[in-house]
Design brief:
This protein has 25 helices and nine strands. By secondary structure, it is an alpha/beta fold. The chain folds into four domains: about 90 residues, Fumarate Reductase Iron-sulfur Protein, Chain B, domain 2 (Orthogonal Bundle); about 50 residues, no CATH class; about 140 residues, Glutathione S-transferase Yfyf (Class Pi), Chain A, domain 2; about 120 residues, Rossmann fold (3-Layer(aba) Sandwich).
Length: about 450
């Protein structure tokens, strides 16, 4: 955990209260930055025990890690980093929770398992089993299952990786060679977005390389599983941080923020950290790649089926990467599409990775407030740059009975440019995915 001096810099002024989502929806002092920091201070002073006090660890786990308190703190106390460090100490003393073992280590640490699990999700949808949850008789008895079901996108397709090649070149000489990091959620839950985005890049003259990377490790970092973070980062860094790539891009802002700090993930004092540190500046999120390196090519855009959109800033994008203008420029470039800003556009949606599953009550309340702000704009479309946010927003909108579509800005740009989705090769259509070389 950070030293006593770092934690003591919190003067309990209360500025964090006005921006902390969990406090605003609970009015509980232990659900705000200064309250959580005070608890960690008591841990350092030995007044609580890491191995015994589940209530204290629960308050630490309740933090969304959205970073809003940090940017609003006069003393610049990095509460999100303090909470991650505290979780690391809890994990070291008490071990991982069953959920973390099953989902993080069991599925996210092994992408092939997650892809196999996605097959079950598609079967679940296509057999009509979902309809049972929302039936008039069983709907009330299965409210909790219906809540979890609301996170699953409608019309899930095969994982994106199964439909893509290791190297996808444009016609003619490429203007850029990009290493594309395909995150877990983008691969399985937001596959159409990944396929469309990559199609757009190829159309714009980008040679796209798809290394066989796994989970970026950010979910494991946030739960304190330091050993698994280093293992995953060590495997990924050799695949994605290569001198031959002009840029390293991803459609997931969470993955982008993680990759930008991969020298810390692999171990700040390690040889691998020394090797990749000069390459970290090549990491960009997809919006930045398009706006700053390709240009919007506005003359070839045409209206899409929506006339008004609003944008949700993911925490990792706006506070982690400082990206907020690029996605709005993309939306503003689409003819006939009016961008309507919602109240609290940069406020956490309550997704925070798996937070919606581990903290359904708080996450649901935050999502409901976000859905209400979206409704007030009158927009029929919500854009965001994070798959986890997309899942949370989609779930919140469905539970609120709202019908707004959710999409990535670059996906919308591809539609406006009339670029068709990446097409499978005959071998892939037969289910024979090509082997990917490291």
């Amino acid at each position: 955990m950070p030293g006593y001096d770092e934690i003591s810099r919190c003067n309990r002024c209360g500025f964090c209260q006005s921006v902390c989502p969990t406090y605003l929806h609970s009015r509980d002092e232990t659900q705000v930055a200064r309250g959580r920091i005070y608890l960690t201070r008591l841990l350092l002073e030995g007044k609580y025990d890491f191995t015994l006090d589940a209530e204290v660890s629960g308050k630490v786990d309740d933090c969304l890690l959205c970073g809003a308190c940090t940017v609003n703190c006069p003393s610049s106390v990095k509460t999100d980093e303090i909470m991650v460090s505290a979780r690391r100490d809890f994990a070291a003393n008490r071990g991982l929770t069953l959920f973390q073992k099953l989902v993080y280590r069991g599925l996210l640490s092994h992408s092939e398992r997650l892809e196999r699990a996605s097959l079950l999700m598609r079967i679940y949808e296509r057999t009509g089993a979902r309809n049972v949850l929302y039936g008039k008789i069983l709907g009330r008895a299965l409210d909790r299952l219906a809540y979890y079901d609301s996170f699953l996108p409608r019309g899930m397709s095969r994982p994106a990786r199964a439909q893509l090649e290791p190297v996808m070149a444009p016609s003619g000489s490429p203007r850029l060679r990009v290493g594309y990091f395909l995150g877990c959620a983008s691969n399985v839950f937001w596959s159409q977005t990944a396929l469309t985005a990559i199609s757009y890049l190829i159309h714009r003259g980008v040679e796209v390389h798809l290394p066989p990377t796994g989970c970026c490790g950010e979910p494991h970092r946030t739960c304190g599983d330091e050993a698994e973070v280093r293992r995953l980062a060590g495997l990924n860094s050799t695949l994605i941080f290569r001198d031959g790539f002009d840029l390293i891009a991803t459609d997931c802002s969470t993955c982008a923020q993680a990759l930008a700090h991969y020298d810390e993930f692999v171990g700040a004092d390690s040889r691998e950290a020394e090797r990749i540190r000069p390459l970290l500046g090549k990491v960009v999120d997809l919006n930045t790649l398009v706006v700053e390196h390709l240009g919007l090519d506005a003359d070839n855009l045409r209206p899409i089926s929506h006339s008004a959109a609003t944008y949700h800033d993911s925490c990792h994008a706006v506070r982690g990467l400082g990206v907020s203008e690029a996605p709005r420029r993309i939306l503003g470039a689409i003819p006939g599409l009016e961008l309507r800003e919602m109240d609290g556009a940069d406020s956490c949606c309550g997704g925070a990775g798996s937070y919606g599953f581990t903290h359904p009550s708080m996450s649901g309340r935050i999502a409901a407030a976000k859905a209400e702000n979206i409704a007030k704009t009158g927009a029929s479309l919500v854009a965001t740059s994070c798959p986890a946010c997309a899942l949370q927003l989609g779930a919140g909108l469905r539970r609120a009975g709202q019908a707004q579509a959710v999409a990535h800005p670059v996906e919308l740009l591809a539609r406006s440019a009339a670029i068709s989705m990446f097409r499978q090769t005959p071998e892939m259509a037969q289910g024979q995915d090509p082997e990917m070389e490291p």
